[in-house]
Amino acid sequence: MRVHFRTTHRRGHRRIVGALSAVLLGTAGATALPAAARTPEAPAPSDTTRTTSTAEAARLPDELAKTPPMGFNNWNSTQCRAEFNEEMVKGIADLFLDKGLKDAGYEFVNLDDCWALPERDENGKLVPDPKRFPHGIKSVADYVHSKGLKFGIYTSAGTKTCNENGFPGGLGHEMSDAQQFADWGVDYLKYDNCNNQGVDAKERYRTMRDALKATGRPIVYSICEWGENKPWEWASDVGHLWRTTGDISDTWSSMLSLLKQNLPLAPHAGPGHWNDPDMLEVGNGGMTDTEYRSHFSLWAMMSAPLLIGSDLRKATPATFEILANSDVIALDQDALGKQATVLAADSGRWTIVKELANGDRAVALFNETDQPQRITTTAEDIGLPRADRYRLRDLWQHRDHHTTGDISATVPPHGTTVYRAAADPHRAARVQQVRSPGTGWSFAPPLM
Ligand code: GLA
Predict the structure, then answer these.
(1) Pocket lining: 224 vs ligand 1, CB cutoff 6 Å
(2) 346 is catalytic
(3) What span, in angstroms and rounded, lies between the C-alpha atoms of 418 and 322?
(4) What is the structure's pLDDT at 57?
(5) How confident is the model at residue 164, as a pLDDT?
(6) d(CA 37, CA 83)
(7) What's the 78 CA to ligand 1 centre distance in angstroms?
């Protein structure tokens, strides 16, 4: 069977699928559930434990991508337009350093589709487009490396990439292309799904995995088959991340749809094998800064790769402020590697919780609706141990609050309040001291 996708058709199809899932999973207008009710997006903890836990999932033995990859990819801002070129890529690498993004954890500078010429050379090798990359790919990779950053590239597990110009794909050329990438100093490969000729996805993606391994170069391997073959069920030892959805676009509805498709896949993510709901649109202009803060917060909660998709040479201070929020990035990069799960979703008011390596919990109170909403949960419901006082760090306001257990916020339309919540160390210690040895808790009197 020959499978030829025209990008526009595929996009249209995926947009419909996305819209349908949004309707099926949407919560706006749903009847109110009890505070801790589990929605279809939120398997009960026992269900989560029964499915693949992060500890059990087979994963690649290379120790790469122990936390979700962070970096830049040009696609969301340039697509195939001429401004995608050597100058842009070097400019982004410069800005990673100048704007503190490297210090914030951003590492990869990745090329997407359209970097090559449509024809291979007489030896079957890929040829960089001399207009975009007059000094070739190795020279750009060297530049990126000279900044202490890493370099990524793109091709498709098909005969051609997705763009209608028909750039060459890797199917049938895996060993040669992987070696060429390694020779150029590539550290990250995004491997797309267009023009796949109906060849079994597992076979196609495993062949490239083996070809990358054979080069001996550590290369983060990003599977991009849009969730069509449920890669979360078979790819944890094939790639380091896999797209779970169709392409994002720079709209609120697209972001929301991808969020709702990716949330239920939490049990499948973990160190070295991540769900990828697609790259960031933060800064591209189609959403408000409030919406971009939600997008960024929710991607971090879901341990998604954080690949900046805007042209940072034109970005506003607000965009840099969002992308460089180190408290939010710390949730994404937390060493435990647990994707957040939905604790409650009630009429568009979402409580999403992420367990963190030091025992803290991150809680996102996300307002999907067009009105301000009070969203409420408790320290106990988000899984914190009993204490008589808790500290809540508001990761966008950069302020600490204290609470005896109530966790709530009035969240603006389309906004997200994110708290990092912990039992107050002193108060928790005091409670520990008076814990009755046998049967539960007795509380220390509140400290003044
Ligand atoms: C597909 C991918 C996108 C992008 C384009 C490039 O649509 O899903 O992320 O790489 O191809 O053509």
Answers:
(1) yes
(2) no
(3) 13
(4) 74
(5) 96
(6) 49
(7) 12
- The pTM (predicted TM-score) of the whole model is 0.86
- Residues of the chain short of pLDDT 50, as ranges, are 1-55, 431-448
**306 Cα distance to chain centroid:** 5
Is 103 known to be catalytic? no
User: What is the best residue among 155, 167, 192, 248 to mutate for testing ligand 1's pocket, by most ligand atoms within 8 Å of CB?
Assistant: 192
Instruction: Round to whole Å and give the CA distance between 196 and 177.
Output: 16
- The token duo for 28 is 């706006």
Atom of ligand 1 nearest to the CA of 190: 10
Please indicate whether residue 129, judged by its CB atom, sits closer than 6 Å to ligand 1.
no
> What are the E-state strand segments in 84-169?
108-110, 150-156
pLDDT tens by residue, 83-114: 999 999 999 999 999 999 999 999 999 999 99
Is 162 close to ligand 1, i.e. is its CB under 6 Å away? yes
Domain positions in the chain are 47-332
Say yes or no: CB of residue 192 within 6 Å of ligand 1: yes
pLDDT the model gives residue 14: 34
Q: Identify the CATH number of the domain defined by range 47-332.
A: 3.20.20.70
pLDDT at 96: 98
